[in-house]
């Protein structure tokens, strides 16, 4: 009870009276919010009275410029074409096909030495499709004969050539030189080759393929004077494809 009386005595000794509340309200009423001076006084209260001219000049002359970043369009323009990323060169494929179609055209060793299997795979598929259109489903024979022939030619050329031979290069050359056989199988779709005409066309296709392949091999592997030795095993290989086409 004594503590409560002491608290009450301390509270009334603070000097706060109810009449002081009116003075406080009167103090705030001196500022009129509708008067322009009210906002002017407020702005002057927070703004410094004077600024350094050098600092103001320096601030007005310098602007923040964000770094220019390359857009997605620029990145797409810098990327190489999709075919180039996949290692497919259409110009080289066309030049190799022309070299095969023209047996008397000199072969470019730098181009033919590339390990390009896009054309050979397409020609093998085309040969299988044309045989199927003629009523002969021989996809397995085409792929099996191709793999066996490439392996045998790789071993033979490795023994005959003084330059290192790549298996991919051998498969590429043999695959591109399969193009005349594709033409023969296309002809077999419309006309039967089991006759004198078919035999002549098959022999012509074998000679064409083997001559083109041997020409490319001797120019790529520097095997001058050995074209007939290279053409003989090539003729045996393409003879198997001719048998698949005729019979």
Structure, described:
The chain has helices spanning 2-12, 20-29, 36-46, 53-61, 72-78, 82-85, 90-101, 109-112, 118-133, 139-160, 167-176, 179-190, 196-220, 227-246. Helix 9 crosses helix 11 (167-176). Residues 22-29 and 38-51 have low confidence and may be disordered. With 247 residues, the protein is mainly α. The protein is built from 14 helices and no strands. The protein is globular.
Key words describing this protein structure:
14 helices; mainly alpha; 0% strand; 247 residues
How would the global form be characterised? Answer: globular
First and last CA, distance: 127 Å
Number of strands: 0
Q: If you average the pLDDT, what whole number results?
A: 77
Radius of gyration: 46 Å
Low-confidence runs (pLDDT<50, min 5 residues)?
22-29, 38-51
Strand content: under 5%
| Helix content class | over 70%
Describe the main β-sheet briefly: none
- Structural class, by secondary structure, is mainly alpha
- Following the backbone from N to C, one meets helices and strands in this order, namely HHHHHHHHHHHHHH
**Total helical elements:** 14
